[in-house]
């Protein structure tokens, strides 16, 4: 795998999934392994001091989103999935392997990542006509690579789940609200519509250790981490205005069922589980 056009965040996250049995062999890479190994001492120190690690909340959010997605599929209400900014996420491969042609799964990202991932998963894609990797510009108003253009290949008589994992906190508030508006409009055109995402609240990251951790994370990803919402109520109101009824899930509440949600850093993130409202 060439790491030239893949961000440190994507590489590190991919290796976290590899190290913890969430990924597929094709997505393993030496650059990702090297980055994970280089950061391991710092993570060990934080854990020894009782603090969070990057791995803590990455696994907590990933497993909780997986749980919600399984629930949507097994309920029979959703058989189509669109994962925006999928990066090197193994979720598409894992869910297609489990559910076969019962679901259609589209992983969407920018052109460079799409080219890399199509190459890595070439053999899987060749035998799975219901697994796709497509280019998307989630903020485009129109065009074949816009959200609207991409879902035209899907069946509006079937349910759709849209996922954004690890995306929202890298954009400012206005951009996130714009994306939610597009997602709400898109899901309203399907028999059933669901939206799953992670989000970090400022009110859950306001102690000294968490602020230091957020600053270190920003340096790691070479950009600012936006904590633009302070409460569940605020997010629920904003999403309702966009046609989405939203639950805000705390991973710590699922610690009994999901071991990854019992770690020190699990509470630093929240998972949004939203349903398109019907009138």
Quaternary state of the chains:
single chain
Please give the count of helices. Answer: 10
**Strand content range:** 5-15%
With strands numbered from the N-terminus, the spatial order across the biggest sheet is 3-2-1-4-5-7-6
How many β-strand stretches? 7
Reading the helices and strands in chain order gives HHHEHEHHEHEHEHHEE
Largest sheet: 7 strands, mixed
Residue runs with pLDDT of under 50 for 5 or more positions: none
Q: Quick check: average pLDDT?
A: 89
User: Radius of gyration over alpha carbons?
Assistant: 18 Å
Shape: globular
Helix content: 40-55%
Could you characterize the architecture of this molecule?
The protein has 279 residues and is of the alpha/beta class. It is built from ten helices and seven strands. The protein has a seven-stranded mixed β-sheet with strand order 3-2-1-4-5-7-6, with helices on both faces. Helix 1 packs across helix 2.
Could you outline the blueprint of secondary structure elements for this entry?
Blueprint (H helix, E strand, L loop, with lengths): L7 H12 L10 H19 L5 H21 L5 E5 L6 H9 L4 E6 L1 H10 L1 H5 L4 E5 L11 H4 L9 E5 L8 H15 L5 E7 L8 H14 L10 H9 L3 E6 L20 E7 L3
Parallel strand pairs: 1-2, 1-4, 2-3, 4-5
Antiparallel strand pairs: 5-7, 6-7
Helix pairs in contact: 1-2
């Amino acid at each position: 795998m060439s790491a030239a056009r893949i961000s440190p965040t994507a590489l590190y996250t991919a290796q976290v999934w590899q190290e913890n049995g969430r990924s597929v062999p094709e997505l393993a890479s030496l650059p990702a392994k090297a980055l994970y190994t280089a950061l391991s001492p710092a993570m060990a120190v934080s854990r020894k001091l009782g603090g969070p690690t990057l791995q803590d909340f990455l696994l907590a959010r990933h497993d909780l989103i997986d749980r919600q997605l399984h629930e949507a599929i097994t309920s029979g209400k959703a058989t189509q999935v669109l994962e925006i900014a999928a990066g090197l996420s193994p979720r598409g491969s894992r869910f297609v392997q489990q559910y076969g042609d019962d679901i259609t799964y589209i992983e969407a990202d920018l052109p460079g990542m799409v080219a890399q991932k199509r190459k890595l998963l070439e053999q899987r894609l060749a035998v799975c006509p219901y697994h796709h990797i497509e280019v998307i510009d989630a903020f485009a108003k129109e065009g074949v690579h816009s959200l609207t253009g991409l879902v035209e290949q899907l069946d509006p008589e079937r349910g759709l789940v849209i996922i954004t994992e690890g995306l929202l906190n890298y954009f400012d508030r206005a951009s996130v609200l714009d994306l939610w508006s597009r997602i709400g409009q898109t899901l309203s055109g399907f028999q059933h519509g669901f939206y799953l995402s992670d989000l970090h609240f400022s009110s859950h990251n306001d102690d000294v250790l968490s602020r230091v951790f957020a600053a270190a994370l920003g340096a790691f990803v070479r950009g600012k981490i936006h904590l633009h919402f302070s409460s569940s109520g605020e997010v629920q109101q904003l999403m309702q205005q966009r046609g989405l009824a939203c639950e805000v899930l705390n991973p710590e509440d699922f610690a009994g069922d999901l071991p990854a949600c019992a770690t020190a850093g699990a509470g630093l993130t929240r998972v949004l589980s939203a349903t398109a409202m019907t009138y």
